[in-house]
Model the fold of this input.
Amino acid sequence: WSLHSLPDLTKHTRRRVMNASSKMTSMQPNRQPPSAKRSILKISKCSPISVLGLGLIVTQLLIFNVGVRFSSQPIVNDSPSSLTAVHTVGDSSSAGGVAGRQAQETDAQSQHGRAQRQPLDFESADAVFHGYPVQLKERKHAFSVSHCVGENYQESKAWMERSCKFSFLCFDVKEKEFSMYQPSTDADIYEHLEKRPFIDVTQSYMKQSVNKTNTMSLGGINQKWTWKPNGIPRLEWSPQIKTPPIDESLSFYELPRDVVMVPFHSLNGGNPGHLVWDDFLPIYTLLTMFDLETEKYLLPIRYVLKGDRGLWASCDFKKEKTETCAAMQKKFLPLMVGLEYQKSLATTEQFEFLPALGKELKSNLVCSRHAAAGLGGITDHGTKKSHGWEMADYEITHNHGRGGQLYSFRNFMLNNIGVNPYFKHKPPFRIVFSENSSDVPNRVIDFHRQIKRLQAAFNPDYVSIESYVFKELTLQEQMEIASQTSIFVTGCGGGAVTGMFLPKGASLLLYYVENGGVSNNIPTGTPARLDWDLFNNLAYIRTHWLPRKSMPSHTDMGAFVLLVRHELDGLLRENSYDYWF
Done:
């Protein structure tokens, strides 16, 4: 490896290094100490300035050259249908190998994974509820405590923004509904609140009168559901509030004390983007806002709406949709609960509740010390807009200032499946293309030309160009690849969710349909930068948007190569900041 073999990307750097070298060879010391003549190493002819300059050159060469000894070869042939990657996930001998990239800088203060899990105690359990041991309890004065946030004083719609934490929330396996328990004395305040409507006690009282209860949105809100009675209003929910006789004991099965139970409605769990951003993200937000993320276990329970069939595009809309959701949720659920949890996602209609060996079930209640609900206002798009189909979607920014939380959310998910969330970018820089990331025809993109242009533009020892069909990979394989990638190229849509798992400093290049906008199911010819609000606020990566239809043109292809070159150059500058400044 020599200076003259550096790729074009570093011409400016190479010129500075060579100029510095030529200047130092012409330097002559003004004075030679007599004692230096006897030096065996004969270093007397080099001044301290020369030694310092030589040290800087060697340091800079090490920064540029580290990692170039890894072997890397072109990954595609001339056939677009035969795009395959030479890197094997988990192979430490390749540039993309996991073992070869594990020596990362770790910032312990930024880790937000779940605490170290201890084995669950099944031996002393009286029953098992969907993978968790439960113990039969009988308690007098078993009352719940609630804490609700998000009140905005809009009587008809405040429920959409509200989220609540519960201490002692129960699931009735017979009624298939959740309940909490308040003492009869809570009703003493009702008459005072009715006389003074400006008194606000909603954060602590689930009920403010006989007919007024804190409600919240079970799940994310899709504006296409409309405000008809069988649409968005169906998500307004509250657990049943019961007042047991003060002198009677309540019999229930108790979950382990470090389990958090979360009832939720899935907006569209059959789509990986909706699943992660409209279900998982708000659940994680619930955990962090109520300081529950350090609890070791999570028990999400998908709520099946009562009455009519499920909302459009939701998991209960059609049988086929239910099956699609089940498969997608099974694949991605470990991101939230860890790999050791072997159960599928529980629903209010389908769950496992079995007595321990030699025992029988004696209560219909399964209760949790920690619980939370209310996803409406904390999804990736909030309660007032969609994901980027309509021009009105761009008038409101929902995720600005959320970059730190989104990075923590990413790390939380990677830690849950045992993937190192930290990565240091170095040559050969990994450029990954996501093929067939969407099932929508106008979002299926052939990146064959872009791959060949990059192969022609960059030294194969400087970049590793790879291509994958991510839906054919396991969850861990997907996350390992994404978490070790410097530049990720894909089409926007649900499959682009993989881009969220890029490491800090990486770049995401999203191709979108520049005239794909839709309003009321009518094409508008406007841009459809789907999920722009989230991607543009992922402050740990750089997101760029490229038009889909004109991508084969000479202008777009040239801009694409220059953009890649610029992003790689930026990574080099960041890695060598101390040298330049």
About this structure: The longest strand covers residues 132-139. The two ends are 26 Å apart (CA to CA). The CA atoms of residues 187 and 209 lie 7 Å apart.
